[in-house]
Amino acid sequence: MLIELDYKDRRPIYEQVTEKLASMMMLGVLEENSQLPSVRAMAVALSINPNTIQRAYAELERQGYIYSVKGKGSFVTDTSKLRQFRLQEARDHLREAAREAARMGMARDEIVKAVLEGAADGGCREGQEEIGKGLEDAARDCENDRRE
């Protein structure tokens, strides 16, 4: 399991570890019911304090990404419902950002292009048409609101 930490990032290390592991779970890299490395093994692999990993695992458990079995370790939960919730959250944020950009006078094509570039920068190739369609719908709604 490869996690790269950015020591220039202002966020605490445990937050970076939490985010990277959550992302790996959402993308299916870490599958449901798969066991995470022990706290000690992960700390050694990343050359960081075990308390930092313990804190990251506790946060992942609090957020519903993992569950612990006493004496066995930490395991990935079924993230399908969590993934659907997070996807809806992301759609809502994109729609609101598109509406704000349209209110500021940005053209629909510019909004779609900016989001598709952001998706490509984030390594996302699949679903760009769906993202673009959703943004076009949001931009069109904003244009209609502005006309009324």
The percentage of residues in β strands lies in 5-15%
User: For the report, how would you describe the main beta sheet?
Assistant: 2 strands, antiparallel
Chain-averaged pLDDT? 84
Strand order of the largest sheet: 1-2
Low-confidence stretches: none
Radius of gyration computed on alpha carbons: 19 Å
SSE string, helices as H and strands as E: HHHEEHHH
How many alpha or pi helices? 6
Helix fraction by DSSP (H/I, runs of at least 4): 55-70%
Distance between the termini: 53 Å
Give structural attributes.
mainly alpha; two-stranded antiparallel ribbon; 148 residues; 6 helices; single chain
Overview of the molecule:
By secondary structure, the protein is mostly helical. Helix content is 64%, strand content 5%. It is built from six helices and two strands, in the order H-H-H-E-E-H-H-H. It has helices at 13-26, 39-46, 50-63, 80-103, 108-121, 128-147, and strands at 66-69, 73-76. It has a two-stranded antiparallel ribbon with strand order 1-2. It starts with 12 loop residues before the first helix and ends with a helix. The model has no long low-confidence stretch (mean pLDDT 84).
Short structural summary:
This protein is mainly α and 148 residues long.
Write the layout of secondary structure elements.
Elements: H1 13-26, H2 39-46, H3 50-63, E1 66-69, E2 73-76, H4 80-103, H5 108-121, H6 128-147
Helix pairs in contact: 1-3, 2-3, 4-5, 4-6, 5-6
